[in-house]
Specification:
With 340 residues, the chain is mainly α. The chain is built from 14 helices and 5 strands. The protein is globular.
Length: 340
């Protein structure tokens, strides 16, 4: 009953990396072929931890530039930033009143980001998943391409949609909506690299906030930086195995092979068929060449776009206007349903 629609977002918090590209942005580009897509720079999520205002403005433009440079078409689809469409925050408030404290308390991202001193975390950091549910459902989006780390938040979004549909079932029906008002959004966690790991520690995910720059490949790194980070990436002393089963218990090797597979559009088995039995140094050289060939054109285009901030801002303003035309009537229905 719900038309298929894709929604996803990336936070403007600096240091966009290969994990963001393979887990999210590259998938966003792919989804454009089959779906109507809405891609959002989630600036309201970014301020759940303090952001320097000038840095935030720059990071909003940089994520937008990464979207465009990677191949997202802002005319055929929608690219915008969250804070320009007030309906996100409006629906998030309703969802704050639907979601339960217990549900949000179980979110591993909150536990990780809040650390030991939970009392000092912002209320926004705690409520983050309810805003994320609103981001998706204010468009009644059905499919959400994300990395593995967002799986739990998507489950929460489904729980919120289900509870809203149940809590207001009678009102929803009386306003002429059959079979529930919100769809249950499906996570699309696809590709060979849904969880890219740190290059320095195979047990930690590659992340924007890792203090070691050697832990991640940034989307804006030049060829020398990419080659040097891959050369220095941690590995174990064994040669690469010929088959996937041989990667078990070898997280660093598994990570590098998964990155190769995702960047080349091949399967892990195909990559191992070529490089299995060989030394890491040979494989790393090939991986560095492949990474540079995929990322360098995107980095170059990002740089070109960042030199034209007025153009980026115009793309966002146009996208926001078109996003609002979808979100506004859905939010108006929510208000009727709730009794406002
Ligand atoms: P980050 O987690 O880097 O702070 P975001 O929260 O803005 O960035 O995430 C943007 C998208 O990138 C999400 O879909 C997230 O799942 C994905 N992502 C983030 N880190 C990784 C990673 N290491 N591997 C795969 N996908 C990732
Ligand atoms: Na994340």
């Amino acid at each position: 009953k719900f038309a298929e629609r894709v929604f996803s977002g990336v936070q403007p918090t600096g240091n966009l990396h290969l994990g963001n590209y393979l887990g999210a942005i590259q998938r966003f580009v792919e989804m454009q072929k089959s779906h109507d897509c809405i891609y959002c720079v989630v600036d309201q999520h970014a301020i759940t931890v303090w952001q320097d205002p000038k840095g935030l403005q720059n990071a909003i433009r940089e994520v937008t530039a990464a979207f465009l440079a990677a191949g997202i078409d802002p005319k055929a689809h929608i690219v915008f930033n969250q804070s320009q469409v007030a309906e996100h925050a409006e629906l998030a408030w309703v969802f704050n009143c639907v979601a339960r404290m217990g549900w949000l308390s179980r979110m591993t991202q909150f536990k990780e980001k809040a650390g030991k001193d939970r009392e000092a975390a912002s209320v926004g950091l705690f409520a983050y998943p309810a805003l994320m549910a609103a981001d998706i459902l204010v468009y009644r989006a059905t499919h959400v391409p994300v990395g593995e780390d967002q799986k739990q938040h998507l489950e929460l979004a489904r729980d919120i949609a289900t509870k809203f549909n149940n809590d207001f079932a009678e009102s929803i029906a009386s306003h002429g909506h059959n079979g529930g008002f919100f769809p249950l959004p499906e996570p699309l966690i696809q590709g060979a690299a849904t969880r890219v790991m740190s290059l320095r520690d195979g047990t930690k995910k590659m992340s924007k906030s890792d203090p070691s720059d050697l832990s991640r490949i940034n989307m804006t790194d030049d060829a020398d930086a990419i080659a040097s980070k891959i050369r220095k990436a941690r590995t174990d002393p064994e040669p690469l195995p010929g088959e996937e089963a041989g990667l078990k218990g070898r997280p660093e090797a598994e990570n590098l092979v998964a990155i190769f597979a995702a960047l080349s559009g091949r399967t892990v088995a195909e990559v191992l068929a070529e490089f299995g039995g060989g030394q890491f140094s040979t494989f790393k050289t090939a991986l560095a060449d492949l990474t540079v060939s995929q990322l360098a054109p995107i980095a170059g285009e990002m740089k070109r776009l960042m030199a034209e901030p007025a153009h980026i801002d115009a793309v966002l303003a146009d996208g926001s206007e078109r996003a609002r035309t979808i979100a506004a009537p859905i939010m108006a229905s929510v208000k009727d349903i709730v009794g406002f």
